[in-house]
Amino acid sequence: MIRPVIAGNWKMNKKIAEAVDFASRLRYDLEAPPDREVIIAPPFTALQAVAEVLRGSAIRLAAQNLHEAEKGAYTGEISGGMLSEAGCEYVIVGHSERRTLFGEGNETVNRKLRATIAARLKPIFCLGETLREREEDRTKAVIERQLKEGLNNLTAGDIGRSLLAYEPVWAIGTGRTASPEQAEEVHRFIREWIAGRYGREKAEELAILYGGSVTPKNIAELMLQQDIDGALVGGASLDAASFLQIVRYE
Ligand code: PGA
Fold first, then answer.
1. How distant is the alpha carbon of residue 60 from its chain centre?
2. Average pLDDT over residues 62-77
3. Answer CATH for 5-247 from 3.40.50.300, 3.40.50.1860, 3.40.50.970, 3.20.20.70
4. What pLDDT, in 10s, does the model give residues 109-132?
5. Catalytic residue at 187?
6. Ligand 1, from 40, 125, 131, 172: best to mutate by most atoms within 8 Å of Cβ?
C-alpha cells in the first residue's frame, strides 16, 4: 500500500506573510496528521520562511521549478542546491504551465529531473495531454513520449525517489475534472509503463498523483481508484480550510 500524498501547488500566489500564516495554520491543524504525506509548494520568495515554520513537522516543502544548471550566468534562475538550502525536499518538474507558457519540452524536463536528483531533491514529475490530443485519441501516445523522453537516463533508484503527477491539461484550473475512470485508465497505463521499464516492484511503490480541478468534493472518489495514490492540487490548495479538507478526505 502506498501512503497517499496530497500536494498543494500555489503557483504564483501568496506573499511571504500570507504563506507563513497558511503554513502555521496547517502545522497547527495537522499536529496529529492523518497517515498521508502532505506537501506544499509556495513561490520561491516564501520558501525559506515557510521552511522555518514547518521545521520539525511532518509537512514537506516543494519548489515549483528549478534551473538545470548548478550555478552560473543564468539571470533570474534558481538552482537545485539553492532550493535544498532553502529547506525544500521536492521540486515540481514539467508542470503543464511550464511546458505551455514557458516552452519547456520533454528534453528540458529531462534535464530538470536529472538536476533535481543531482541536488538530492525529489521530483514531482508532471505529465498530461491537452484537450486536442485527447480528442484525437492520442492521450496514451503523448503520455508515453513524455515518460520516455522525460525519464531518459534516469535509473530505477531515481524513480524510487520520485513522484509522478498525471494532470490532463484540459482539467487544470478549468473546474473540469477527469472522471475517476478516465484518470484511472491513464494512471494504470503509466504504472504499466514504469513496470516495463523499471520492474514491477518499482512500479508498485511509485506514488502517481492526479491533478486537475481536485476539490474537497471530488477527492474521495478519485482516491478510490486503485492507481490514484494522491493529488496535486492548485486552486483548492490556496485556502487552508479547503486544502485541509482535501488532506483529510475519507
Ligand atoms: P488546479 O491545478 O487544481 O487549479 O486545476 C492543478 C495544478 O496545476 O497542479
1. 12
2. 98
3. 3.20.20.70
4. 999 999 999 999 999 999 999 999
5. no
6. 172
